[in-house]
Design goal:
The chain is α+β, with helices and mostly antiparallel strands and 226 residues long. The protein has three helices and eight strands, in the order H-H-E-E-E-E-E-E-E-E-H. Strands 1-2-3-4-5-6 form a six-stranded antiparallel β-sheet. It has a two-stranded antiparallel ribbon with strand order 7-8. A hairpin with a 4-residue loop joins strand 2 and strand 3. It is elongated and about 85 Å long.
Length: 226
């Protein structure tokens, strides 16, 4: 005999399944979104490194090593000169002069500002006392620092506009553009404060996990919270 009564889910069972799916989605989707956003910021930081390195090398090829910054005793004047010579090789949308204005969410002392067509914001500072920042014993490990560029990698119009998330520091030296936190002699530093100095970690480890489990991380042993 054929059983005419087929088993099916009741309405209560269907609603229960949907409720479970909703709870799981509510828990997992924000985490997935956070991960996507983090990877986008890491990718933008790597692009910033590449763009700045190309611009710096082009500047050096055209004007020579930037010991010409010593021609002025005013660091702000030196920063303007450095900005003008770097921007020749950058795809600039706005030159904000010495006002962060639309270029950066935060102002910095003695800085000049640019906004690139990619949306990236730059704050450029310079040093006119280069000799004092050089080691006489080992120039490879303690290079002369000519200046610093603070970068909002996704631009001031997008969040979170926070140090170590989308705002990072790069140094300009006789070794070229160097991500802050990188040491030739000690590897990569991880900073618990001044998170924008963790540029090297973001680029080389490929994550921002120092914002989540700083005390557990080690460049030699553990490069992520997982």
């Amino acid at each position: 005999m054929i059983n005419k009564f087929k088993k099916a889910f009741t309405m209560a069972e269907v609603l229960m399944v949907l409720a479970v799916i909703g709870v799981v989605a509510a828990i997992t989707l924000p985490r997935l979104s956070d991960n996507v956003d983090e990877q986008a910021l890491v990718a933008a930081t790597k692009k910033a490194y590449s763009d700045l390195d190309i611009a710096y090398e082009s500047m050096v090829a055209r004007y020579g090593e930037p010991d010409w910054l010593l021609d002025t005793d005013d660091e702000k004047v030196a920063a303007e000169l450095l900005k003008n010579r770097l921007k020749d090789s950058l795809d600039v949308e706005s030159d904000c002069g010495d006002s962060n204005s639309i270029c950066m969410p935060t102002s910095y002392s003695e800085a000049y500002y640019l906004k690139l067509k990619s949306g990236m914001g730059l704050a450029i500072t310079a040093k006119n006392d280069i000799d004092s920042s050089c080691s006489t014993s080992d120039d490879k490990y303690y290079p002369c620092t000519f200046g610093e560029i603070i970068v909002d990698v996704n631009g001031p119009d997008k969040g979170p506009n926070q140090s170590g998330y989308d705002i990072f520091q790069f140094k300009l030296s006789n070794n070229g553009v160097e991500p802050e936190g990188l040491s030739c002699s000690f590897g990569v530093y991880i900073y618990s404060s001044g998170l924008d100095r963790n540029t090297a970690w973001a680029i080389k480890a490929g994550n921002l996990d120092y914002t989540k489990c700083f005390s557990d991380l080690s460049w030699a042993n553990k490069r992520s919270c997982n």
